[in-house]
Design a protein that fits this description.
The chain has 3 helices and 6 strands, in the order ααββαββββ. The radius of gyration is 16 Å and the shape is globular. By secondary structure, it is α+β, with helices and mostly antiparallel strands. The longest helix is centred in the middle third of the chain and has 17 residues.
């Protein structure tokens, strides 16, 4: 059974990690995604601005959703590498990540993401590489380690 993008977004919005960080999935379409976080006390680190891990998690998630929005996936995207440049701190308001896929191979995707304030200030820039993990046709689960398949 093929899961629709709408159903996948619903599952994403109900994910405990997304709830912990208050990540909202605003838009997902062909090779593009926009996610956001309304900043609250739980996002603030010791120096009074949003923790870099929150921003990196938002960037990582945005690229994954841009990949899901690309359609016709044969599996699940998993992060291979992510690089992020933090450009400006932010203390209040909303942070918005807009991601685009910039390369789509048979198994490898590369995405580019900009994280901005609600006012449009560029807070961080990131690039991420993902590997598409195949799903097991017998149970629909992703092979975490496809080379350890019992078929080898």
């Amino acid at each position: 059974m093929q899961v629709t993008l709408e159903k996948l977004i619903e599952q994403g919005e109900n994910n405990p990690f997304y709830k912990l960080l208050s990540i909202k999935i605003e838009d997902v379409k062909d090779g593009f995604a926009r996610l956001s976080i309304e900043i609250s006390k739980k996002h603030i680190q010791l120096l009074g601005s949003v923790h870099g891990g929150v921003i990196a998690s938002l960037a990582d998630s945005a690229v994954a959703w841009a990949i899901y929005g690309s359609g016709n996936l044969i599996g699940t995207p998993v992060t291979v590498e992510i690089k992020i440049n933090f450009l400006l701190p932010i203390k209040t308001g909303k942070i918005i990540a807009e991601a685009r896929t910039i390369h789509r191979g048979s198994r490898i995707f590369v995405g580019d993401v900009e994280i901005k304030s609600n006012e449009g200030l560029l807070l961080a820039k990131s690039i991420a590489t993902y590997y598409i993990v195949e799903k097991d046709p017998t149970n629909g689960n992703a092979h975490a380690r496809p080379w350890q398949s019992s078929n080898l």
